[in-house]
Structures are given as structure tokens and as C-alpha cells.
Automatic annotation (TrEMBL):
One of its GO terms (cellular component) is microtubule cytoskeleton. Residues 73-226 form the AAA+ ATPase domain. The lineage of its organism: Bacteria, Pseudomonadati, Pseudomonadota, Gammaproteobacteria, Lysobacterales. This is microtubule-severing ATPase. It comes from the Bacteria. The keyword ATP-binding applies. One of its GO terms (molecular function) is ATP hydrolysis activity.
């Protein structure tokens, strides 16, 4: 056996909300209002179950069984969808909305499976088990009657390593053990009813183990931006630089599906590839011009659509 990973080895930087930086990033996300609302409601209830009881007393007295079925859902929300569509960004910033809404501190424990758990056999299992141990221990300290004094979010990002179905014949023994550790962790949090929730991000919902899927209180889907959403991002970034609506419209088109392609740019294609290229092209001698911007955008290829086969 390997030694148990320490808190610092296990998690990327822990974050505590409310946090003004998270709030700014959350506000910048486009086209995810519905996901935002649903996620903050679910997380809010986990840290403040009495809120639902108050609501029921007011609107549906005698609805105890109804409440029970809502409150007993496993504390897991799955964010699924194409790369660069805002899953990580939302998961890393929603804690701020919940903290403000419930007026308590929320702590995020971010665990990325992409960069970890690729080493020795047993590592993935050990990582997940330890991560759930920490989340459970932290959340237990915050437990209160009706309303907790704080809340914990465990973020399992880039969880594709976990998403191969247990039923798949090729699935490696070790992966299966990882899935089992994940399920055990979710079930432990659910049973102890501590103020903790798990957000899992994956590009491959269809390949996700049915036992994991079944446990999700909600599955939120993220998509590439349509033309109106691309326009919004581009306007926001390029209008202040002096580009006109007509010029921006050219970029909206150039970032859409072209030449018989199925998909257009992702949000991150626009914010992390296109815009920086436009800026660096002009820097340090010229100012940004729409003609050059278009010449840069046209040949640029969107990130290929993620092949999500089960
Ligand atoms: N819905 C969105 N609105 C605005 N920008 C976005 C959106 N989604 C992604 N982005 C941009 O793309 C970057 C990468 O997004 P990220 O959340 O990491 O994607 P993923 O879905 O792969 O986790 C963000 O930092 C942001 O700049
Ligand atoms: Mg991500």
C-alpha cells in the first residue's frame, strides 16, 4: 500500500467563499443561467435543509414525504458537456453564489483526476477514498440542526477516468476499483447527511457508469455557444477596442461551423485562443484592426467535438 496522501498533495488550492474573484468569474459566464440556478439551489439545500421545510410549511403543509424524497437525494451533481463550455469555471465559482445566498462560508476542495491517479495500481482508489474522507471530516465539523454553519464542495474535475462503464469489458480492474470508491464516497456523504456536496465534471456522460449516473441529483448539460452567445462574448471583448457591430458580425460568422464542419468555436476557443491571438498579433506596434482579426479567425479551427460514445 502507498501512504495516504496529505491534504496538500491531494487537492489543488482550496478556496473559501464568499470570494470577490469567484463572483466576477461567475458573472462572466454566458448562457449558463439555468445551470447556475439549478446548481446553487441544490447546493443551498444541502447546507440548509430547513429552508425547504420552511418553504413547504408555507406552500404545501403536510408534504413530509415529498420533502424526504428531495432531501434524501445523494449529494452529487454532474456537469457534462463539451470541452471549454464552462463546467470547471462554474464548479469553481458557484460556491460564491451559495455562500452569499445562505450567508455561510463554503469551502471548495478541488480534485482533478486528469493529472493524478495515473501511477501505481491502487492510486485512483486511494485518492478518491482519501478525498471523501477529508470532505466528510470537514463537513462533519459544520453540521448543525436545520442549518449548518458552513458547507463543503468536493469537486471531482476531469472525471473521465471514472466514466467508463463498469459493464464495459475493456475496463481495467483498477478503474473499476476507482468507480467503486467514488460510489462508496457518495453513499457515505448521503448517509451521514453532512453539509457536503460533490460536483463531478465529465466530457463523456454517455460512458459514465450507470451506478454513478443513477446517484446524481441532477445532470447539467453544457453546450458550445450559438451565434447569439458568440456575438455576446465577442462584443464584450472587442467593442471596447473600437470594433463596430458589423465588424464583430464577421467574427461571429468566422467562429461558427464552417466548410461543412459540425461545430463552431467553443467558449474557450474564443476566449483563450482567438482573442489572445488577435491581441498578440497587434502587440507591440499596432492597434487591433478588424481586418486582421478576421484573417486570424477564418483559418483557425474549432476544437473538435468530443466523441462521447458509450
Ligand atoms: N459559458 C461561458 N461563458 C463565457 N466564457 C466561457 C464559458 N465557458 C467557458 N468559457 C471560457 O473558457 C474557459 C475554459 O472553460 P472551462 O470551464 O475550463 O471549460 P470546461 O467545460 O472544459 O471545464 C473559461 O475560463 C472561460 O474563459
Ligand atoms: Mg474543465
Amino acid at each position: 500500500m502507498h501512504s495516504k496522501p496529505t491534504l496538500d498533495e491531494l487537492f489543488d488550492q482550496r478556496r473559501i467563499y464568499p470570494d470577490i474573484d469567484a463572483r466576477t468569474r461567475l458573472d462572466r459566464l454566458i448562457g449558463v443561467d439555468d445551470q447556475k440556478a439549478r446548481l446553487s439551489k441544490i447546493l443551498g439545500l444541502l447546507v440548509h435543509p430547513a429552508g425547504l421545510e420552511l418553504w413547504a410549511k408555507r406552500h404545501h403543509p403536510g408534504a413530509a414525504t415529498l420533502l424526504d424524497s428531495v432531501l434524501r437525494r445523494p449529494p452529487l451533481v454532474i456537469l457534462s458537456g463539451d470541452v471549454g463550455s464552462g463546467k470547471t469555471e462554474l464548479a469553481e465559482t458557484i460556491g460564491d453564489a451559495v455562500a452569499r445566498q445562505e450567508k455561510i462560508d463554503i469551502t471548495l476542495f478541488p480534485l482533478s483526476l486528469a493529472t493524478r491517479g495515473k501511477g501505481q495500481v491502487g492510486e485512483m482508489t486511494q485518492l478518491l477514498t482519501t478525498a471523501f474522507d477529508y470532505a466528510l471530516a470537514e463537513a462533519t465539523k459544520l453540521q448543525g440542526r436545520g442549518k449548518s454553519t458552513g458547507g463543503v464542495i468536493l469537486l471531482v474535475d476531469e472525471a473521465d477516468a471514472l466514466t467508463q462503464s463498469r459493464e464495459s469489458a475493456q475496463m481495467h480492474h483498477e478503474d473499476r476499483a476507482g468507480v467503486n470508491a467514488f460510489i462508496r464516497g457518495i453513499d457515505r456523504l448521503a448517509q451521514t447527511k453532512v453539509p457536503a456536496a460533490v460536483i463531478m465534471c465529465t466530457n463523456r456522460l454517455n460512458a459514465l457508469d450507470p451506478a454513478v449516473r443513477r446517484r446524481a441529483a441532477d445532470i447539467l448539460t453544457f453546450n458550445r455557444p450559438d451565434s447569439a452567445q458568440r456575438r455576446y462574448v465577442l462584443e464584450h471583448q472587442l467593442r471596447p477596442l473600437g470594433l463596430s457591430s458589423v465588424q464583430i458580425e464577421g467574427l461571429v460568422e468566422a467562429t461558427g461551423a464552417k466548410d461543412g464542419q459540425e461545430v463552431g468555436f467553443t467558449y474557450s476557443d474564443i476566449t483563450q485562443r482567438l482573442i489572445p491571438s488577435i491581441v498578440l498579433d497587434a502587440y507591440p506596434d499596432r492597434s487591433i484592426e478588424s481586418k486582421r482579426a478576421l484573417e486570424i479567425a477564418r483559418p483557425m479551427q474549432p476544437t473538435p467535438a468530443f466523441q462521447d460514445h458509450g
